[in-house]
User: Fold this.
Amino acid sequence: MSTRRDFLKASGFLIVSGAVLSISPEELLAQASGPYPDPDFLQLDSWIVIRADNTATFFVGKTDLGQGTGTAFRQMMADEIDMAYDQTSCVMGTTNTTVDQGGSGGSDAIQTDGWPMRRVAAEARRVLLEMGASYFGVPVSTLAVKDGVISTKTGDTADRSITYGELIGGKKFNVVLTGRNVDAATGTARVKAVQDLKIVGTSPRRYDIPPKVDGSLKWAVDVKLPGMVHARNVKPPVAGATLIGIDEASVKDIPGFIKVVSKGNYLAVVCEREENAIRAARQLKVNWKKPDVAPFPASTDLFKYMRSTTPSSSGKPVINGDPDAAFAKAATIVEAEYDVPFQGHTAIGPAHALADPSNGQMTIYTNDMKSYGMRNGVAEFLKMPRDRVRVVWMDGPQGYGRTAADDAGFEAAYLAREIGRPVRVQWMRNEETAWDTKGPAYAFKMRGGLDAAGNLIALHYDACAADHNHLGYNEHDTVLISQLMGVRKSPPSPGRASLPSDMYAIPNRLQTTRVVPLPMPFETPLRTGNLRDPDGPQVTFAAECFIDELAVAAKADPVEFRMRMLQGAKDDDSGFKRARSIACLKAAAEKFGWDSRPSPKPKSTGDIVTGRGVAYAFRSQTVVAEIAEVEVNRKTGRIWIKRIVCAHDCGLVINPEALTRTIENGLLHSISRALYEEVTFDTEKVTSVDWITHPTLRHDDVPESIEVVLVNGDPNPKRPDLPHYGAGETMLKATMAVVANAVFDATGVRLRRVPLKVT
Amino acid sequence: MAAITLRVNGKTHQVDVEPSTPLLYVLRNDLDLSGPRFGCGLGQCGACTVLIKGEAVRSCVRPVSQVQGAEITTLEGLAQDGKLHPLQQAWIDEQVPACGFCQNGQILTAKAMLDKTPHPTDAQIREGMKNTLCRCMTYYRINAAIKRASKVTA
Assistant:
């Protein structure tokens, strides 16, 4: 553990309480002191350090994408160890100082990784109480502990006390944990019952916010190292172009020009100053040869292409009941097609990284949410021993998912090795918007059968996703620089088309899925990768809009239509998703003041019409039900979500305020995707390349009211082991559908293509 | 290269750069001010915003030669005598930032707006802020924080 202790000593760079200080000389020297082995997750000392001043720092293997997870980790761990929130700090995501919990992704930080954090903190409390007992010479059962102070609790004036810091400050626990992997890491102590948690469930303010507001936070974009130089990529002008020749003389006049680096079709320029690297990348004369075959259809032809192309893979059909027979006897059959285009992460700041090749090692400063994966991937890519590579996670512009931050980390590392100096690379806006990984496009065909009473008796969901060669995170053989250098992962990832998430009792159901390839699967700006709630918004758009269409056909109120199908079965899962689905739908309707009637609303005159819609979904164990009220201007086509209600059940809530903010922002992110966002392209390049060609939600679109209702719909809401589920993505799932359903209610026009346009 | 004199947050600096260099790179790379950030380099998003003569200016497209001698304020210069500006305090009170990368531009754009219109209507806030982008979509709380701050500023 000496490396982490050294790091603590060189604490100039520690991310403590959100304040990233400048890089100290010790920190720079620490690079010589590698290698950088993984902290051992079976050592309690890897997780918790207590200082003589009775403060604690928690070391966790996650990253915070601006949702307050760092604050939540402190709350959970402070609660278990019995220290005050303000006595604690949290270090996240740096590969040689924090255990590998995989970084962020899948909204699993609280749901999965929160458990080992709670258990190790409980174990630390147990060990400290034993130390206190032997210090006082009394049994543990006679001791009380509060805010890191252990006291004998006879109620006598002679009661004595000692702090955690006095017992162990500056020393190691030397306690070995058990568990076959980091998720299972545990001591012998048990976590507290929900009823005994005091900090969990309250809303201490996020510690990362003040330095983000006063300008003091140092981000991954801000790191400066002695001798550092700047690089910019030169991307192929059209997808699949081959690099034929470079006229290096065309940039020789640029002050501080250092080098043109190229291998295969990967090309970058390196200069002493940033603005000159940008100039060099634009000025460099390059001869590219276009590919013989168009790499993809134009975005205007995408859905026609997807519906007529032979799949690269198909999912096994999921069949319940006898759909064919049910359709044959249905009184009413409804059919509809839905389309969702490719959408991008399009973070507010483009991808970037700084790599330092000093001392035969490689340190990468990045905001990539999976720093551990980047460490592994870069080691493989550069053929370096894993413990010679270190990834330092810092705050950055977030895109939520498999973003180009992965690609930039590998590029910086490659360039740093080539140049032999620290290299900072940053993508330009057009590169970011065009070449960042995309959420897959989907083409759906839905068919539903109602009986004479308006009950849904048969449903066929058919989904086709353009998701062939879906990228993983930080894979050495799929990052863009590898692809451009000619590496071809074989076989490529098949991708997937996903199924809807609902707990509806539909007696006869057929679900078919397939993936289609684009003509050019590699070196393409239409690389697919995980985008926040990877397929959820697409799938739920089709599924929940179509449920609405069926409710219309049944002349039923859309909340009641759904409620009937949720209540129509008795079986549930162990997380009681059905019970919590019902609770959320009820809570949303109640908060909104839902009046029962079928859609659409009776026709009204005037340019502006209003309507309301509902949609529901779950992700893993977290359930949402959303209701939106929209205004549609029939003259201008403007859709404004005036009010949105989200009933949200993620089990035990750690920090209600931070969670509420995260939900509010997530709803707006999905509204942006519903109304504005689409990756457009001709047959050779992406044409949505900036904030004009790739519009996004703006301040003037903000709803008048966003109302979040935190629901605990567990059948036994007071159970002492109420789990905490993830909450970073579920709210996105239902939102595209809720907007489209409300627009239908307002206008009587069913919009089946994202982004939603009223013409 | 040319010697350029800049007044930033009350201090005078001399830098030796190409006169056409956008102000952003000088602030970030030569003066170590990390408040303004590169978002698009096109003047479209506002992440690079600084205040010059009370106006919110996009430093990514403003040549450094054009701002010689002008009083430039960055996010770092907003607090006075160790006290946060009411907007910064409102940002904390409303817990506005998510990732926070764009918030420099949000705060400084709001500052320029409130300096001219101390008590903006909701419509004025929407209009005044609509060209400053946030991809975490913190707009709802930005709106609330501006209203909160406008009650504090007399």
